[in-house]
# Entry
Amino acid sequence: MKVQFWGVRGSLPSSLDTYGWVGHFEKLMKQFFDSGFNSKSDINEFIKQNPPAAIGGFGAATTCVQVSDGPHTLIVDGGSGLKHLSDQLEKLGRISLHNEFHILMTHFHFDHILGLPFFAPHFIKGKKIHYYSVQPETEQIVRNLFKKPIFPVGFESLSADIQFHTLQPYKKTAINGFEVTAYKMDHPDPSYGFRIEKNNKVYAHAVDHEALRLTREQLGADAGLFEKADLLYFDAQYEEADMALKKGWGHGTCDRGFQVAATFGVQQILFAHHDPAFSIEDSWNHKKKAEASFQQHFSKNKLKWDFAFEGLIVEVKPRSNNH
Ligand SMILES: [Zn+2]
Ligand SMILES: [Zn+2]
# Structure
């Protein structure tokens, strides 16, 4: 199972402005020479020595995740990252290889729907697009996205065959070769997380989620999302110190993710829904604080963790038996 992250920013697409990038490049160039490099031929080595997100940042696009296993693919959410996925399908000529597309919707906040009208298969005859969600109002919401004056092409004019499917929470459903189960998140309006399983591999998608409930008892039926997940994608938009002010806003923290991972035997966790107000440096500071907290409180857990960045691809491996 392969998981590709097309958009990992929260709430609003957000990038440095031009002068912000100029400042970032200036810093990188200084770092290049400070590291003892001095010629063009050293550039590749410099890039290799640094994490991709230290050079390119964590990304600007909002939530869109692709879960694949061989030719089978599911898309989770239609944030602005979906446009990148669509562009890549077109560029590689892959749109012609797929006749059906399967999109799981967590909820309908702007950052999770704004890429949907830019997903090219909507406009191609012979394509079938399946939308899946717990919320029965998905059809109405998607119809309203393809509507003048907010979008020039009306839903009725779309060439693809578009189908809407309502999921029952906590009920495993077979979708395009995967088993998908929806769980309720701590988020307004509401939002659902998805446990996606195939061949004993488990991807758990938990953005947007404030993680107000952390223990098995508090989570009740929703604990099922996290149980022994091989890869957990977790909302850490905020820092614990900000939570007094941001309580009820629907987003979590790294500490809450570490705690959930420890309680439920998670193998690997990736933090995301990065704050749109954060510069590259802010996100790295956020990560440094998470590292300190992990070392102090959670390091006895054998947990692999990192911050997700746009373009990241993770191969989900089944856990070894001695785990
Ligand atoms: Zn969101
Ligand atoms: Zn949301």
Summary: The chain has a mean pLDDT of 96. The CA atoms of residues 160 and 258 lie 42 Å apart.
